[in-house]
């Protein structure tokens, strides 16, 4: 897991999401912790639409997973279920052919790898939702 104070260590400007460069990720992730209820809701909406869109998972998604997992456990405001649903949506990809060469190393595969690292901490949360 990665805490919100680590968010600026990721080179987001080198990554992309559905709307272009992902340099806005620290703002959205930070709003989950430090924004009011409206700001946190808007951030979650933006994260849903930008990290994956129309079946495509973008390369900003894998590095976002540890922050989203940490937020599911620690962010205020009772957004645990929504954050777990976002993590599920990121992992629920439908590659055209999982055996195709583009699958290994893809953003979708990266999300699954990151999520597998976070599962030991997230599984107990399923009792809460």
SSE order and pairing:
Elements lengths: L15 E2 L2 E2 L3 H10 L2 H15 E2 L2 E2 L3 H14 L5 H12 L15 H16 L7
Antiparallel strand pairs: 1-2, 3-4
Fraction in beta strands: 5-15%
Low-confidence stretches: none
Rg, alpha carbons: 14 Å
How many domain regions?
A: 1
Strand order of the largest sheet: 1-2
Please count the beta strands (DSSP E, at least 2 residues each).
4
Query: Separation of termini?
Result: 20 Å
Largest sheet: 2 strands, antiparallel
Shape: globular
Order of helices and strands: EEHHEEHHH
Number of helices: 5
Name the average pLDDT.
89
Describe this structure in words.
This protein is mainly alpha-helical and 129 residues long. It has one domain (4-127). It contains five helices and four strands, in the order ββααββααα. It has helices at residues 25-34, 37-51, 61-74, 80-91, 107-122, and strands spanning 16-17, 20-21, 52-53, 56-57. The strands form two sheets. A two-stranded antiparallel sheet has the order 1-2. The protein is globular and about 35 Å long. The mean pLDDT is 89.
Q: What is the compact description of this entry?
A:
By secondary structure, the chain is mainly α. It has helices at residues 25-34, 37-51, 61-74, 80-91, 107-122, and strands spanning 16-17, 20-21, 52-53, 56-57.
Question: What characteristics describe this protein?
Answer:
129 residues; mainly alpha; 6% strand
């Amino acid at each position: 897991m990665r805490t919100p104070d680590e968010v600026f260590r990721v080179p987001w400007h080198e990554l992309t999401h559905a709307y272009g460069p992902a340099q806005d990720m620290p703002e959205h992730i930070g709003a989950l912790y430090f924004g009011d209820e409206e700001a946190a809701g808007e951030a979650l909406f933006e994260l849903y639409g930008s990290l994956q869109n129309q079946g495509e998972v973008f390369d900003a998604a894998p590095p976002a997973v540890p922050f989203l997992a940490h937020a599911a456990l620690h962010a205020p405001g009772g957004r645990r279920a929504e954050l777990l649903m976002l993590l599920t949506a990121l992992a629920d990809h439908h590659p055209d052919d999982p055996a195709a060469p583009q699958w290994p190393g893809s953003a979708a595969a990266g999300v699954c790898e990151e999520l597998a690292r976070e599962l030991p901490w997230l599984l107990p949360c399923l009792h809460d939702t």
